[in-house]
TrEMBL record:
It comes from Rhizobium fredii. The keyword Disulfide bond does not apply. InterPro entries: AB_hydrolase, AB_hydrolase_1, AB_hydrolase_fold. Keywords: Hydrolase. It comes from the Bacteria. SUPFAM superfamilies: alpha/beta-Hydrolases. It holds the Pfam family Abhydrolase_1. This is Hydrolase.
Length: 269
């Protein structure tokens, strides 16, 4: 796996790439990206996978002005500009799915196919009620119960990690809190922009996901033209971690489907 840094504006963006073939942008979830990611390794068997660490995650810097997920989307579009990628497929997990959805509304022509895995980012329920659980108010054990089909298998053990990795894990969580706390896990405007997405879009969720409900995933699909929802069984919210091979196989199959004409965006008035 190759490791790079890109200076774009005043952001120092860490990014990795692995494999050869058609380019695929992978946008990680709230836990961040680590080079031993089995899902990325599976995708890299047939694709050139490009993985930026979101600003504030990994070794990417977080300037003071960058305070929302929409800003992250602009930074990653700058990465695509730097790489000269006029059209690319994208896979985003959780908050990475939110980033991918934002990017799809900003530059619809740039994306061939989009996979959103357990995405957050929209508000669909009453204003006085959260659409997804408040993970910042829960214990690690409670969060694991929401995020995994087999929570015991993925119980967090700090002693298993180096000091450097623990520091990164803590920083990733701090950044996640900063960028998603208020408004909680959504951009109020995104749902009104999703009609601009023109790429065929697959929305995936784990059958045991206690964080992103089936109703929430279906709401995403209703807002994005040419989209569908599927479930991967024996998986929770963190599909890439819990079922990397099954997840990669479904993504690869979707990306390999014959290209269809993109949906033209129409002003709904």
């Amino acid at each position: 796996m190759k490791h790079h840094f890109l200076h774009t504006g005043d952001v120092e963006l860490e990014w990795h790439e692995m494999g050869e073939g058609a380019p695929l942008l992978y946008l990680h979830g709230g836990q961040g990206f680590f080079p031993d990611d089995a899902f990325v390794a599976a995708l890299a068997r047939t694709r050139r996978v490009i993985v930026p660490s979101h600003p504030g995650f990994g070794k990417s810097s977080l300037p003071n002005w960058l305070d929302c997920v929409t800003d992250i989307a602009h930074v990653h579009l700058a990465l695509l500009d730097y790489l000269g990628l006029d059209e690319v497929d994208v896979v985003g997990c959780s908050i990475g799915g939110w980033v991918a959805a934002e990017m799809g509304t900003m530059s619809p022509e740039r994306f061939g196919r989009i996979v959103l895995a357990a995405p957050v980012g929209i508000k669909v329920g009453p204003v006085d009620r959260l659409d997804v659980p408040d993970i910042f108010a829960l214990s690690q054990e409670q969060v694991a119960g929401l995020f995994y089909h087999d929570a015991a298998k993925f119980r967090f053990d700090a002693s298993a990690y180096s000091d450097e990795k623990l520091t990164t894990i803590v920083r990733n969580r701090e950044t996640l809190t900063l960028l998603t706390w208020e408004p909680y896990m959504h951009n109020p405007k995104l749902r009104h922009r999703l009609q601009r997405v023109t790429a065929p879009t697959l929305i995936l969720r784990g059958g045991s996901d206690g964080f992103v409900s089936a109703d929430y995933a279906n709401s995403f699909a209703r807002l994005i033209p040419n989209s569908s929802v599927e479930t991967i069984e024996a998986a929770g919210h963190n599909l890439a971690e819990e079922q990397p091979e099954a997840f990669a196989a479904r993504v690869e199959a979707f990306l390999a489907e014959p290209q269809t004409t993109k949906t033209l965006w129409r002003n709904a008035g």
